[in-house]
Amino acid sequence: MESRGQRLLQDARKLVAESWCHGADARDVNGFEVDPWDDDAASWSLLGAVVAVLEREASLAGELPLDELGAALYALADLIETDSLVDWNDDQGQTQAKVVAVLDQAVAAYQDNGSGLELSLN
Question: Is the dihedral of CA 114, 117, 118, 120 positive or negative?
Fold first, then answer.
């Protein structure tokens, strides 16, 4: 059964595959920076796509459980060699195809059970 965390990665992949941007979380059709969840958003960075999907899911089905969000982000973190999704996305050598490929790999690697994930209650 597909989890909401895995669906987060799949839906973020769909947005990036549709249209990718860098230098902003999201842009409208004219290239102006907008919020990722804005109805005018037409292209998304890696982080922007994740945020857009999280906002949409929160409005439709409630907040994503932390263990599923954590597992989705860990799946991405294992594939990206920097601490910042923004820096990785905005690297000069980055391409839409590479971002889509990383999201594909994260979907494949996603662990629904959140194994190895410990959340602090503080």
Answer: negative
Conformation bin of residue 85: beta by default, left when phi > 0, alpha when psi is -120 to 50: alpha
* pLDDT tens-digit series, residues 26-71: 999 999 999 999 999 999 999 999 999 998 888 887 777 778 888 8
Question: Rounded to 5 degrees, what are φ and ψ at 54?
Answer: -60, -45
What are the sequence ranges of the domains in the chain? 4-106
Q: Which residue type is seen at 63?
A: E
- The region that residue 117 occupies, defined by phi over 0 for left and psi between -120 and 50 for alpha, beta otherwise, is beta
